Amino acid sequence: MVLLRCEAVRWVDDEPQPGLVEVRFTDAHQRQRAFIDKWPVFTGDDLTPDSRYPVEVGILCDILTADGTTDPLDTVTVSVAPWGIESLEGLVEFEVRADQLTTS
Questions:
Q1: Is residue 62 within 8 Å of 2, Cβ to Cβ?
Q2: What count of other Cβ atoms lies within 10 Å of the Cβ of residue 8?
Q3: Phi and psi for 5 in degrees, rounded to 5?
Q4: How far apart are CA 13 and CA 22, in angstroms?
Q5: Alpha-carbon gap, residue 85 to 33, rounded angstroms
Q6: What was the pLDDT predicted at 104?
Q7: Is the N-terminal amide bond of 16 cis, ω within 30° of 0?
Q8: For the chain, how far is it from start to end, CA to CA, in angstroms?
Q9: N or C: where does the chain have the smaller number of CB atoms within 10 Å of the terminal CB?
Q10: Is 72 helix (H, G, I), strand (E, B) or coil?
Q11: Helices in 15-85 by DSSP H: which ranges?
């Protein structure tokens, strides 16, 4: 599995259960992207309203394209669509740096 490294930046609400968090990352073009969803959607530790934010989390993603080199600053296109989430702008595909991805 490929994960896009992100940060949970705040607890949004207790409802719907088990609670909503806001998660952000900066894409390869220096644009900040944000998601709000139930905390279990994002990999990492269990989150609560009392967690010390920001907390490193990950979003499962599929690699759509990569430029084929191994430089950590290379650009990779990923999709979060298979996991049913989208950014606050309604986007599901993002260009990120290769070093923003990890495997589990």
A1: yes
A2: 22
A3: -70, 130
A4: 10
A5: 13
A6: 74
A7: yes
A8: 6
A9: C
A10: coil
A11: none
Residue 18: asked if its preceding bond is cis (omega within 30°), the reply is yes
Output b/e per residue, 30-57; b: 16+ Cβ within 10 A. eeebebebebebbbbeebeeebeeebeb
Q: What's the CA gap between 36 and 55, in Å, rounded?
A: 14
φ, ψ for residue 93 (rounded to 5)? -120, 140
The encoded tokens of residue 88 equal 């606050």
Residues near 84 by beta carbon (within 8 Å), at least 6 away in sequence: none
For residue 32, the one-letter residue type is: Q
- Read off the pLDDT of residues 82-95 as tens digits, 9 standing for 90 and up: 889 999 999 999 99
